[in-house]
Every structure is written in C-alpha cells, then in structure tokens.
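ok so for the tutorial part 2 we go from a plain amino acid sequence to predicted structure tokens. step 1 is just haveing the sequence, like this:
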Amino acid sequence: MKHFTCWNQMLAMMFGQLSNRGSLRDLIVAFEVHRAKQYHLGLGREPIAKTTLAIANQNRDYRIFEDFAFYMIKEV
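step 2 — the prediction. this is what the tokens look like for a chain of 76 residues:
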C-alpha cells in the first residue's frame, strides 16, 4: 500500500479493537477474509501488509489518536 495514512491506521486499529483481535497477524488475517468489504470501510482496495501497519504503529505519534479519542468521548 503506497499511502497508509493516519486515517487508514486508525480505521485498521479500530476494526481490530471492535473485532477483538489479539495481534497484528490476527488483524491482517481478518482483513484478508473481508477484503471485499475493506473498500467500504474506507481502507481502499489494496491489501494491508502486516509490516506496513507495524511500521505505522511504531513511527506515528499516538497522541494523534489520543486527541481524536478524547474528542469523540466528549461528543458522546
């Protein structure tokens, strides 16, 4: 996947949380099973590589997602 944005990462991790995935490998397997629906989730048509997600999790600052989570909690 050429452009794995913060939005893609957040959607992937939210899907992992909501579907109770225990690891990145488990999450990627779930995405492979539901690849046809991946586009409708807003993740594009290309499969997500475990390495891409792992690098994004390692290199992106968690505070981007923390701020969004606090905003959403406040809205609810």
